[in-house]
Specification:
Blueprint: E1 2-3, H1 13-25, E2 34-35, H2 43-52, E3 57-60, H3 69-85, E4 90-93, H4 101-116, E5 134-135, E6 141-142, E7 145-146, E8 153-155
Parallel strand pairs: 1-2, 3-4
Antiparallel strand pairs: 5-6, 7-8
Amino acid sequence: MLAHGSRLAEWALPFEAVCGMVQSRHPELTVRLAFLESMQPSLQQALEEAGQNGTKHVHIAPLFLGAGGHLRRDIPEVVQAARARYPKLRIVLAQPAGEDAGVIAALAAYATQSQENELFGAWNLHELRYAQPTKHSDGCCHLPRYRIGDGERSGES
């Protein structure tokens, strides 16, 4: 999986939760999270590791909402360089997550839920604090929800 990256370590928590969920649902796969900027491992590092380890197939699932400049230019350049360096490594770059019908439906459901749910308000990013995800019996990690504005926890998801 590929995410953009951030200088804030907590930013990666939702992506790590997705990665953990995929790995728990598909233990036969090697699931890795790589980043385009600011975080490690970079996409280039992850592809280099795959090539050096003799991996035969890499499926890159970009956890991006749309295909902007990174997906049109930057990522294909990194993929092409890895293909040239490791010609036996098959690299498939999927469409961005935001172009998937299921993701679009989930975002629409979330937008409707957040409008109707009193626990959610307008985001005040200066007061939003992340917490460690909690692992539930289903093997999935869930991030706590926050009441925005006062920075206090309002419930667990």
